[in-house]
Amino acid sequence: MNALKLGWGSGGGVSAADLERHSSALSAAITTGGAQLDPELAARAAAVAAKVAERQARSGSHTVVAFAGATGSGKSSLFNAVVGSDVATIGARRPTTSKPTAAVWGSDPAGALLDWLEVPSRHQVPPGGAESLDGLVLLDLPDFDSREVSNRAEAERVIGLADVFVWVTDPQKYADARLHDDYVAAMTHYDAVTIVVLNQADRLTPAQLDACRADLARLLHRDGLADVRVLATSARTGAGVGELRAELARAVAGARAARTRLDADVRSAAQA
Ligand SMILES: Nc1nc2c(ncn2[C@@H]2O[C@H](COP(=O)(O)OP(=O)(O)OP(=O)(O)O)[C@@H](O)[C@H]2O)c(=O)[nH]1
Ligand SMILES: [Mg+2]
Prior knowledge:
This protein is α/β, with parallel strands linked by helices.
């Protein structure tokens, strides 16, 4: 489908009309291409067009943000720190999380969206907090490098549906191939909805933290993410959690991330 010209401009936000136009163009290309298209690519493109319609029908006002990463990086701990209460289970046994947990900010009902995401474990966050996170649906995922096949499958399934990815890593695992090769480098289309967090910053001296952050930024650049910023956090001390919340507040502002992610899906399917 690489000969298709679907008419994207560069930069700027993706309006609902843009997304609708791009998705319709993709659907039309599948119909026109017919038997000449690679059946696998055509099926993938059809699935993307269906997903756009399904996601938009569920909720245009929410932003689904997933905390994803290796086991023990501190996803659940950081999730609880952002939520402000102990909602997710934290454990010494690896892996701990096997099913996603959701936290929802704001009064808009997110039930239909969470049904679609197949996340039964839901927590409504009470109003308050310095910045507005209304509209945020935050998901704590199982580990994507799990020795439990079902954990990996569940993480991958939800990563396929979330609007914004927060890759949570730590000083020990930040250079792992699983993160860089299987996710970040394979998902450079999604750079506009990608946040990278180096958690467990309290384990490093300030000089070590600077070096680790710079090395991670270098690896992300090599993966193909030109501009991504690395946030340093400690779920243990709370350092950097305010900055992460501010980043999440930016991600939910205007509820644009869902369209940006879906448009990247359409773009990726069209260019395959
Ligand atoms: N020192 C330090 N320890 C942390 C930090 N965040 C989490 N931990 C510890 O790291 C361990 C793993 O934390 P979890 O939050 O369960 O990690 P997870 O990424 O959710 O792990 P899985 O659910 O197995 O994928 C626990 O013992 C936490 O107390 C941190 O910022 N600093
Ligand atoms: Mg966990």
